[in-house]
Design a protein that fits this description.
This protein has 6 helices and 6 strands. It is of the alpha/beta class and about 190 residues long.
Length: about 190
């Protein structure tokens, strides 16, 4: 079997592996790690307050790397913030940030909202500056307001979220988009 064929097999199989399994597999070979595993680990990153539930019965945690808080039933909100903040700091120090194609940020992930927004804004700014990101999905309206202008000027995005239809003319790469999601916090119409 040729090495390139082996890499292709691992790339297909890796869709069914969670990030822990990928870390284990990355120790098999340095070439495998560099060519197949590391790009897969960084391709799709989801930042969430609570760790994902892992089970052998489903593949919910596959194909995504989760950056999440403290994995414990008994934890304080400060402990969770500290773990999550530290993990995001480590991610920002990575030399592989340019491999991130999709970034998903859940809503209300930090108890200390100000510090949380500060570090998340730094991370998002850094990823946008690199210019390889294709999808940024932010489910926190206040954080979205902080980064909306910079997101709209990113030419590599294939999907964009708007905090109102009035921002559509500000989108830099309208011709390259595959999707536009318009978010209305207080829609001007009444559906009742």
């Amino acid at each position: 079997v040729e090495y390139d064929q082996l890499i292709q097999v691992f790339e297909m199989v890796s869709r069914f592996l969670n990030q822990n399994d990928l870390f284990t597999l990355s120790q098999v070979s340095q070439k495998l790690n560099q060519n197949a595993i590391t790009p897969k680990l960084y391709q799709k990153v989801r930042i969430t307050k609570d760790p994902v539930l892992r089970s052998d019965k489903w593949y919910l945690d596959c194909n995504t790397t989760y950056i999440s808080g403290y994995r414990s039933i008994v934890k304080s909100l400060d402990q969770n913030d500290l773990f999550l903040y530290d993990k995001i700091e480590r991610l920002m120090e990575s030399t592989h940030l340019g491999l991130i194609k999709e970034l998903y940020v859940e809503g209300n992930i930090f108890h200390d909202v100000e510090s949380g927004y500060e570090i998340l804004k730094k991370l998002i700014d850094r990823i946008l500056d690199i210019g390889n990101i294709q999808v940024i999905d932010i489910r926190d309206m206040e954080l979205m307001e902080l980064v909306q202008t910079k997101i709209l000027s990113c030419s590599s995005l294939r999907k964009v979220q708007l905090l109102g239809i009035h921002l559509l003319p500000n989108v830099q790469n309208l011709q390259n988009l595959n999707g536009i999601e318009c978010i209305f916090e207080n829609p001007p119409w009444n559906l009742e």
